[in-house]
Amino acid sequence: MAMILDAFVGRYIGKLSEVIEGEISTILGVKGELTRLSEIMKSIKDYLEAAEKRRHTDETIGIWVKKLKDVMYDADDIIDLCIIKGGRLLEDHPSESAVRHHFSLCSCFSCIKFRYEIGGKIRKLNNRLNMTLEDQSKLSSLERIRHDDVRVGGVNHRQTSPDVVTKSRIVGAQIEEDTKSLGEYKEDETKAELLSRLSPLLSKRFFIVLDDVWNADLWEDLLRNSFERATASGRIVVTTRHTNVVGSMRGDGNTEADIHHVKKMDNESGWEMLRKRIFGDDVVEEVISDLKEVGVKIIEKCDGLPLAIKTIAGVLSSKEKTNTEWSKVLKGDAWSMNQLDKELPGALFLSYDDLSSDLKQCFLYCSLFPEDCTMDPDDLIRYWVAEGFVKTAEGDDLMEDVAEDYYRELITRNLLQPCDIFGELSDLAGNYCRMHDLLRSLALFFTRDESICIDKEQPRNINPSTKIRRLSIVNIGEKVEVPNIIIQQKCLRTLIMWGNWKSFLFFDSESYWRSDKTTMVENELFKKLRFLRVMDLSKTELESLPDSVGDLLHLRYLDFDRTKIKKLPESIGCLVNLQTLNLSGCELLHTLPKAITKLCNLRCLRLEGTSLTHVPKGVGELKHLNHLQGLVMGHDDRRDDEGCDLKELQSLCQLRFLEINRLERTEPAGAPVLGNSRFLRTLILNCKEQEDDAEATAIQKIDTIYNDLSPQSTHLRRLEINDFFDMNFLAPVHR
């Protein structure tokens, strides 16, 4: 499950306290019921970490935890409604005295109706909680463990051939475990495309790698005949976890084939790998000699698997470098997690179990991405924030800063692998990351009751008793569709759509995951998915958005990156909880609705790569913005609409990233506009490219504008200026 109870309830109590202490609970008349709810939450909080640990080994506790999670999800939805509806009432009646004396007859009846409905929902919620907690035998069992201190895949086949060809052309293919014979594929062009890539290679000496093959159908149904007709000689390397696959691919015995069983690491090699992972080259021999004995015993438990050793190194790196601390890891119960698939080493579970509750939720969420898919850290960070997995930041930090620390720790612990878009390793802050297939299997094991990633071309049955909270769909068709059983459950929180995620993927283009089919979403769909927090449709070619998107009052994350959307409905202004709106690369989008300025909780607005003529005046009201990219200044002379100006930036105090376009169209502010943006890290300033030399008055104007934009932040890491008329403005920037 992606929800980890103790983390979720802890943040929920904080959220609940804010509502109780504020005016919302008063205007709704629900302070008493909410206080009772808060007291119940506080009374069970201490049991929850123990319950999470026990649910994997105790079926009774597991059922109890599942019921409690269902209640907590509903509780979160109800508090959201209180905040939304109560906030609207407070806007109409900004003080308690106004609430008491100045209701219109119509608003009075409306308020009474909602107060009655929300009060009833909270009472039912409290009753459900009490019923869940009535079984004292479970609680007494948890009481006894509440203070407990419980803290082959994985072999890199490519590392076994360091001297293999350095200059080659490579065709990449992904083969899924549960595929049928290639002749039965619905997408016939997949086979043809692969053959067209192979044909020119087979007329020259070739070296081809088929990595992680699960069955021999690929060879028998597609590749065998092609290679037998090859006019040149070559070599094929097959890596697999299954000996019978290699036996089948050897054919009738006439084909030359050597089978090399990759050996697991011996203890000494494993210890050397562990030591370097933790200490690097800076080693204190006294420390190493004291730790080697227990370290080698840990290596033995990793069963010679490099992935297991890497993840355990991540655990040990977070501990004190003492024999006592390492011995605790060695003796931990997590090594013997019997419920796991035999393919999953106990070291992987121990690495997961050692994470904080916050990090566990973030790690598990990554299972929504298809196998071997690259993940953008910026997307992950904002997904996590939208889902409520990130604890409230302290001091001047933002939740996104905290989430970035989470991401870095998952990288450091080797639970995510940094890479660039082409799969090459990069530094810690690499552009993308991946999750190893065994670690993804581990995450899928724990999320199986809440999350699912399905392929529309390979339908699978969904257990009606399983409440799906998070859904990822690959190979979507002409329109965005969700299985009826999930719609009927009315509890979906995340929806991520993927395009043509083929069984064979060619990595010469980013278009491999995009769908050229999915162009529409029906109006009724959003009305049935009212509790969505995250909706990512960026892997589609969506052309329009129905008005019913405004019904998604709980929505925090909305992504249309590089879709063909032409217009946003005015109803988007109803999304008062929205934190991220990504419209980057929407080349057919020319205007934004005025209602976009009502998104009072917006934290990230991405507009780069669009065809916007202007951005409506009022952006300065979005005071929570920390990432504003592609902001178009001024307005088109052919339109009457008023665009935003420099002065609006003065109120955006939380900006970390700011990109401004068409600066030549705005007027000077007459004062510094970024003086309040003390933590700005990236500033990108763009003018329209000039075909002729600019006039002196235009140069003087733009100089004044750039003086107004001189960054005051001591945190600035990147300053980029494009198509500027004059460079004199650099003097104040240097000062």
TrEMBL record:
GO terms for molecular function: ADP binding. Keywords: Leucine-rich repeat, Nucleotide-binding, Plant defense, Repeat. Residues 526-722 form the Disease resistance R13L4/SHOC-2-like LRR domain. Residues 368-443 form the Disease resistance protein winged helix domain. InterPro entries: Apaf_helical, Disease_R_plants, Leu-rich_rpt_typical-subtyp, LRR_dom_sf, LRR_R13L4/SHOC2-like, NB-ARC, P-loop_NTPase, RX-like_CC. Residues 8-90 form the Disease resistance N-terminal domain. SUPFAM superfamilies: P-loop containing nucleoside triphosphate hydrolases, RNI-like. Residues 187-279 form the NB-ARC domain. One of its GO terms (biological process) is defense response to bacterium. It comes from the Eukaryota. It holds the Pfam family LRR_14. Belongs to the disease resistance NB-LRR family. This is Disease resistance protein RGA1.
